[in-house]
Amino acid sequence: TLLQTSQQQAEKQEASLVASGCSSLAKAYPDYVFGEDFKFAPIRESIVARAMIKRYWKDLETYAESDIVIVGAGSAGLTCAYYIGTRRPDLKIAIIEAGVAPGGGAWLGGQLMSAMVVRKPADAFLNEIGVPYEDEGNYVVVKHAALFTSTIMARALSLPNIKLFNATAVEDLIVKEDEKGEQRIAGVVTNWTLVSLNHGTQSCMDPNTLNAHVVVSATGHDGPFGAFCVKRLAKAKLIPALGDMRCLDMNRAEDHIVKGTREIYPGLIATGMELSEVDGRNRMGATFGAMMFSGVKAAQTALSIFDE
Ligand code: AHZ
Q1: What is the atom index within ligand 1 of the atom nearest the CA of 168?
Q2: Which residues form a coiled coil (predicted)?
Q3: Burial (CB count <10 Å: 0-12, 13-18, 19+), residue 41
């Protein structure tokens, strides 16, 4: 039956190739012959434009009212998105990433070397998403950090309830009174990153907004864009002054980041290295287990808000 099904699929593929104008290719992949008569199915440029525009605009419209917005698609943010997306397919999750390429600092290990070290017990998360590693006792090693990052990205982005808006920066937070009269985060203010980078050179280029019940901030430690949400909260005097990230100590840093992952302001959960800036805690350098488990804890915290 499996053979029959693939034969039927091949016949269907051939028929659709012929119908779409690829008669010279009327042979199912992978038996194409890329000879002189090779040609793609014809298309008009406006069809390509419309295929992108209508989906992007529909996504903007759909996610203007999200359940959860995750700011930053580094290792912590992507882990959080994957965890919520797989456990609660009914929740709409928007990820806002300032960079064109999602993944944050997780494309390489330390000092631009390839391997990614993950301390136990966070190997359990690698098992869940199916990333292979070498077991070295107290820690495991993924042969290339990009293998983890591309896998978590594929797992998260293939879920129908997750949309990544990359090349888009969060420029501010929405803070409103809730029905009990208490102030809480109610969403984020966004702009194209290239616009955000040019506010100093053009007169006011107003932003867009996304409302959300919960915002998870995963923007990493301080940097040109880093620690964005906690810096904004501190500047607006909604949380006390930041503690600032301390020097490197792997043991202290990783435990704290996971234990300290929490709702730091009503409606806003901080995860990953952004927390080291809030709490004045150490950095860990090139060990990534805490990013994964902090992302999981942020997801569990967000889900508990929905269960309230
Ligand atoms: O582009 C940023 C990156 O991809 C994105 N980001 C920051 N500000 C943003 C904003 N709007 C939208 N205003 C924004 N996106 O957030 C992402 C943060 O990823 P990261 O890898 O820097 O943070 P992480 O906490 O997921 O992982 C930290 C990894 C580190 S740093 C470190 C050390 O320095 O010792 N050690 C580890 C394991």
Answers
A1: 12
A2: none
A3: exposed
45: how many CB neighbours lie within 10 A of its CB? 7
How far is it, in rounded angstroms, from Cα 153 to Cα 144? 15
| 68 DSSP β-pair partners | 93, 214
Alpha helix segments (H runs only) across the chain: 2-19, 45-63, 75-87, 123-129, 145-157, 193-196, 228-235, 250-260, 274-279, 289-307
Token digits of residue 59: 């996504």
Instruction: List all residues 6 or more positions away from 22 whose beta carbon is below 8 Å from its beta carbon.
Output: 39, 40, 41
CA-to-CA dists, residue 268 to 11, 182, 305, angstroms: 53, 14, 11
Which residue of 233, 273, 296 sits with most ligand 1 atoms within 8 Å of its CB, as the best mutation to test the pocket?
273
Quick: pLDDT tens for 161-217: 999 999 999 999 999 999 899 999 999 999 999 999 999 998 889 999 999 999 999
Q: Are 162 and 91 in contact (CB under 8 A)?
A: no
Amino acid type, 100: V
Does the pTM of the predicted model rise above 0.90? yes
Peptide bond into 30 cis (omega under 30): yes
**Cβ neighbours of residue 39 closer than 8 Å, sequence gap 6 or more:** 21, 22, 24, 25
Q: What DSSP letter does each residue of 29-55 carry, written as one string?
A: TTS---STT--PPP--HHHHHHHHHHH
From the CB of 225, is ligand 1 less than 6 Å away?
A: yes
* Segment 251-293, tens digit of pLDDT: 999 999 999 999 999 999 999 999 999 999 999 999 999 999 9
| Token pair for 67 | 């359940």
Please say whether the beta carbons of 187 and 171 come within 8 A: no
- Residue carrying the six token digits 């994964």: 292
